[in-house]
Design brief:
The chain has about 625 residues and is an alpha/beta fold. It is built from 23 helices and 21 strands. The strands form six sheets. It has a seven-stranded parallel sheet, with helices on both faces. About 5% of the residues have low confidence.
Length: about 625
């Protein structure tokens, strides 16, 4: 259908909502003087009687007095700061509104249900258009507001598809204005939607333009754009606002992160469907006759893997079929372990409990040894290495409701075959075997951005079939990441293919000691000849000159940032020195100043070359935030 005006688009979108089971009322009819008035004045954004009816229906054992008192607080949250207020209200929607009251001279505390998540049709679904709202200084009239049980959870702003001077970003700017002029409307908000009839995108109340994304599916993840590429708004309404899916989204796919300021993140369509498919696969694999293979989620770099894993963890922990499982999150590097732990630590609203991070091999064993139930435990796979006096890694628990979620599964989760140590003659196994020996009945699920397949390293053979695939092309099409273009700059350094199996074997030995940085660096002495070749001073000087020239020339037409990955920490530090020798004004000892920095894992007892680049966890986070800020000189 071709839309001739914004009114046409609005009417058609209301029809879609009605077709999926929503009631409809025009905003003017809800007004204080309307024919179906449900608002005492134009400042009210909640439909009070609908909330009251819901509270009575979903909480039948609670007295009228308690419900009336709760209703006053729900409709007047009075929490300073829009995002703080939104986070608090979201917790009420998901976990219930907390109340206390006296019963038989005893104080009782419980939470009142605002939504029935298990029975979608027991909720009150309403869509309203042209809802006039009076703010402190300005009056506004959003195009479409979606209510569940009298609570406005979504705002949809539309623009005239026939006007070539307007597009969806005008709708985005309109929503920004609403957040300033009528902020109360956004206290309970879950979704913001913008559309011009051709394109449609959805985002959270803290999302910038980049974070507004298209919702491309209705029922199945593989069935992209089922109604056609230019029916984006209808696909979004039928796909995301479906009653069952929307309740699931509200409960399990909204995350709040706090790093100086609160950021609300919501799942994209590929994350939503991947998580739900993975949950069912894990349930099946963990049954008594299951194969313990939870599957592989292959989502390209930059596709939001951390959010995905947090949402998955929340759903697994709350699924009654798993009977209070223990989750073990495994990475192969300390920095990844810390990054992922940081995301989970800030996701308490969907996890329900605080994650624990294993600080050492012994700490890991203490956390898992005969653990009765529950828990989220983070570890590097290196902590599953055997001690010197052990031939095999000891069994920590035989429980079947252990779920191991492996990040970047293509690197260290393989290698079950034994190999003979040339020095001792003993058979040695890879770290993956230690993990399986320690948790013999666990179900294993893998996340990877770059799956590979070669002898003894086939991702699917180890973890099972693909649960979800979101490749680089799809991510680029969605605007989730930018296209990658390769430009050859210098001659390659070739390694004979016959040497690769030996190199892989040696690297696995090195990785086992990653927790002991100084020991690991000594082991890397075997690669001194190759590192000397890669990091030769004339070569680093040439690279530094080429990088600076390329960056400065490119920045004239396409401003942006540059990221350099080095073979070793020493090479990174020496390349840094070469760069600042050519550009001394880029250097500053203060980590919050300067245009170039080295980010690496380091200990306090490093060489003089590496010492200047030693940073704490907070300083690394500061550098990350600086790098993400387009206005920061870093």
């Amino acid at each position: 259908m071709t839309f001739l005006s914004e009114d046409d688009l609005e009417i058609e979108s209301l029809n879609w909502f009605k077709e999926i089971g929503y009631s409809y009322i025009h905003g003017k009819d809800l007004a204080p003087d309307g024919i179906s008035s449900e608002r005492k004045d134009f400042r009210e954004i909640f439909l009070i009687e609908r909330i009251k009816t819901t509270l009575k229906t979903l909480n039948p054992d609670i007295s009228e007095k308690v419900i009336e008192a709760a209703l006053v607080k729900i409709s007047n949250p009075n929490i300073p700061g829009l995002l703080s207020s939104n986070r608090n209200f979201h917790e009420w929607m998901v976990k219930g509104f907390p109340v206390t009251f006296l019963e038989d001279n005893q104080e009782i505390g419980l939470r009142l249900k605002l939504f029935d998540f298990d029975n979608p049709d027991k909720n009150d679904w309403l869509v309203v258009n042209q809802l006039a709202i009076h703010g402190a200084k300005h009056n506004r009239r959003p195009d479409v507001v979606v209510y569940i049980n009298g609570i406005p959870i979504a705002v949809i702003e539309l623009k005239n598809p026939a006007n070539p001077k307007t597009d969806i970003w005008d709708a985005f700017n309109q929503l920004k204005t609403y957040k300033v002029d009528i902020p109360d409307l956004f206290t309970p908000n879950v979704l913001l939607v913008i559309s011009d009839g051709t394109y449609a995108k959805v985002g959270s109340i803290s999302a910038d333009e980049e974070r507004f994304q298209q919702w491309r599916v209705i029922e199945k993840e593989q069935d992209l754009d089922p109604l056609g590429k230019f029916k984006q708004l209808e696909t979004l309404v039928r796909g995301l606002f479906d009653k069952k899916r929307l309740l699931d989204f509200i409960r399990s796919f909204c995350i709040y992160e706090e790093g100086g300021e609160i950021i609300k993140k919501i799942a994209a369509y590929h994350q939503f469907h991947a998580v739900n498919t993975a949950v069912e696969r894990v349930i099946e694999a963990s049954k008594p006759d299951g194969d313990r293979k939870g599957g592989v989620i292959w989502h390209t770099q930059g596709a939001g893997k951390s959010i995905e894993m947090a949402c998955l963890a929340g759903k697994l922990l709350s699924d009654k079929r798993l009977q209070n499982p223990t989750l073990v999150l495994v990475t192969d590097r300390q920095d990844l372990d810390g990054q992922l732990f940081g995301v989970f630590a800030g996701s308490g609203n969907i996890l329900g409990e605080k994650p624990r991070q294993a600080e050492s091999r012994q700490d890991l064993r203490d956390l898992l040894n005969n653990r009765p139930s529950g828990g989220i435990i983070f570890t590097t796979i290196q902590k599953f290495a055997t001690e010197k006096d052990e031939k095999i890694f000891p069994t920590l628990t035989n429980r079947k409701n252990i779920v191991v979620i492996c990040d970047e599964a293509h690197r260290t989760q393989y290698g079950f075959k034994g190999r003979i140590d040339a020095k001792t003659g003993e058979v040695k196994y890879g770290l993956a075997k230690g993990l399986r020996d320690g948790l013999p009945n666990a179900t294993f699920l893998a996340f990877t951005g770059t799956p590979i397949s070669q002898d003894d390293r086939d991702t699917q053979a180890v973890f099972g079939h693909y649960v979800s695939i979101y490749d680089i092309q799809q991510a680029v099409d969605d605007g989730a990441t930018v296209p990658i273009y390769y430009e050859s700059r210098l001659a390659k350094l070739d390694i004979k293919s016959s040497a690769l199996p030996k190199i892989d074997s040696k690297v696995e030995d090195i990785f086992e000691d990653e927790d002991d940085i100084s020991s690991t660096e000594k082991e890397k002495g075997r690669w001194a000849a190759l590192e000397a070749l890669v990091g030769a001073e004339p070569r680093l000087t040439q690279i530094a000159k080429d990088l600076i020239a390329h960056y400065e020339q490119r920045s004239k037409t396409q401003p942006g940032k540059a990221l350099i990955v080095g073979m070793s920490r020493e090479i990174c530090a020496r390349l840094y020195n070469e760069i600042i020798e050519l550009k001394p004004d880029w250097h500053d000892e203060d980590h919050m100043k300067g245009s170039v920095k080295v980010v690496m894992t380091a200990s306090a007892s490093e060489s003089q070359l590496l010492q200047p680049h030693h940073t704490s966890k907070q300083q690394k986070k500061d550098l990350e935030n600086r790098f993400k800020d387009p206005n920061d000189p870093l």
